Amino acid sequence: MDLIEGQEFRKLNGETFPGPSEFDNCHFDDCMLQNADLSRSNFIECRFSHSDLSNASLDATSFQKTIFQDCQLLGLHLFNCNTINFEVDFINCLLDLSVFQEMNLKRSRFKDCRLTGVDFTAADLSGVNLEQCNLQNAVFERSILIKTDFTTARHITLDPEVNTLTGAKFSEQGALNLLNKYQVEIIPDII
Predict the structure, then answer these.
(1) Span 11-32, pLDDT tens digits
(2) Are 111 and 165 members of one domain?
(3) Considering 64, 91, 118, which residue would you say is the last residue of a domain?
(4) Is residue 176 within a helix (H) or strand (E), and if so which, with residue range?
C-alpha cells in the first residue's frame, strides 16, 4: 500500500482516486467519489470538503481523526469500515440513509448535519453532541446514548425502553417527543 502524505487533491473522481493507499494529513476538496471503491484505504488526520462520497464502498476503510465538512455522504455503510481508532467529525454534511450499526462513535462529532433515515442500531454514541442535527426518521434501537446531547437536535424519535439513555440531554420538546409511542396528550400547565 502506498503512503501519501500532506497532499491536496482537487476534483478527484472514482477513476482518478489513487487507492487503495494510506493517506496521512491529506486534503480532498471538491471530489466526486460517489460509488467509488475506497475499500482498504486508510485516512489519517485527513479532511474532505465540498465532496460527494455517496454510496462509496468502504470495506475495511479506516478513518482516524478525519473531518468531513460540507460533504454529501448519502447511503454510506460505515459499519463496513475498520473500526479500530475510528474517529470522524461531520460538519454541515448530508448523511441521509447512512448506516452506523454497532459502531463505536464516542469520539465522533456531528454538527449541523442532516441524518434523515440514518441507522444507529446498537451504535454507541456515548457523550456525542448531535448539535443542530436533523434526525428525522433516524433509527435508534438498542443504541447506547449515555450522556448523548440531543438538546439542539431536531425531529428526534426514539424509544426510551429499547435504548440506554442514562444522562442523555434533551430540550423540553425533545423530551416530550420520547412519549410519542404512548400516544398521550400533553396539556400545558395553566398558571
Answers:
(1) 999 999 998 999 999 999 999 9
(2) yes
(3) 91
(4) helix 172-177
Q: pTM higher than 0.85, yes or no?
A: yes
Q: What is the pLDDT of residue 84?
A: 92
Of 68, 99, 97, 104, the residue nearest 83 (C-alpha): 104
Contact 96, 117 (CB under 8 A): yes
CATH number at residue 151: 2.160.20.80
Range of the domain at 136: 100-182
19: number of Cβ within 10 Å: 21
Using CB atoms within 10 Å of the CB of residue 128, give its burial: 0 to 12 exposed, 13 to 18 middle, 19+ buried. buried
Q: How many domains does the chain have?
A: 2
Report the C-alpha gap between 48 and 66 in whole angstroms.
8
Q: Among residues 65, 91, 117, which one ends one of the domains?
A: 91
